[in-house]
Amino acid sequence: MDIDDMIDAVIDREGGFAHHPDDRGGATRWGVTEAVARAQGWRGPMRTLPRQEAVAIYRRLYWLRPRLDDIAVRTPAIAAELFDTGVNMGPSTAICFLQRALNALNRSGRDYADIGVDGRVGPATLAALDAFLATRGDPGQAVLLKAIEALQGARYVALAERRPANEAFLYGWLANRLTGPATGHGA
Questions:
Q1: What is the DSSP letter of 166?
Q2: How far apart are CA 83 and CA 187, in angstroms?
Q3: What rounded mean pLDDT belongs to the chain?
Q4: Measuring CA to CA, which residue among 7, 141, 149, 9 is closest to residue 74?
Q5: Closest CA to 78 of 126, 15, 124
Q6: Among the listed residues 65, 59, 75, the one whose alpha carbon sits nearest the alpha carbon of residue 11
Q7: What is the pLDDT of residues 26-51, one digit of tens each?
Q8: Helix (H) or strand (E) holding 88
Q9: H/E/C letters for each residue in 38-70?
Q10: SS3 for 2?
């Protein structure tokens, strides 16, 4: 699955215009919140945000800016999961999940040194990912993906516990986001 396919899948899943009263994100179109659209220069009504504008926003803010293309060269499945998680929770949060998982999976630093959990893909994160993949191979990718999804699921439950209005979204988040695009079961 390439980035164009991933963006299409997000847009298809998110649908057209929505403005749920319990959604702190407010009005959205194609899954893009009004705040993000405005920050990217959109001045029209959210109901009329063109699909191609949403595509450009997803590519720029959720793929290229967080450097997921650098992750995709190494492991497309992890990059796809980080993209989908980033769309829903913010790219920095998704990358923090990756960094936390890599730190927890380095066997107390025997495989590679711990890295900072700063939500940015930089040389240290890429080196840790390379070392993890060299040590654990293809089976390791599946384990890393599960670790990222476990952190994501824990965050969804915590969001619902802290703000009961989020319970309206919890089932959908768990059903549609935890099996991610990497496995082909939604995202």
A1: G
A2: 10
A3: 92
A4: 141
A5: 126
A6: 59
A7: 899 999 999 999 999 999 999 999 99
A8: helix 76-89
A9: HHCCCCCCHHHCCHHHHHHHHHHHHHHCCCHHH
A10: coil
Do the beta carbons of residue 141 and residue 77 sit within 8 Å? Answer: yes
- What's the average model confidence in pLDDT over 143-165? 94
Mean pLDDT of 116-133: 98
The residue with tokens 């063109």 is: 50
158, 89 contact by CB (below 8 A): no
Q: Given this model, what pLDDT does residue 183 score?
A: 38
* Dihedral over Cα of 91, 92, 93, 96: its sign: positive
CA dihedral defined by 129, 9, 66, 125, rounded to 10 degrees?
A: -10
Give a three-class secondary structure readout of 104-162.
Answer: HCCCCCCCCCCCCCCCCCCHHHHHHHHHHHHHHHHHHHHHHHHHHHHHHHHHHHHHHHH
Residue pLDDT, tens place only, 58-90: 999 999 999 999 999 999 999 999 999 999 899
Residue 123: CB atoms within 10 A of its CB come to 9
Tell me the whole-structure pTM to 2 decimals: 0.89
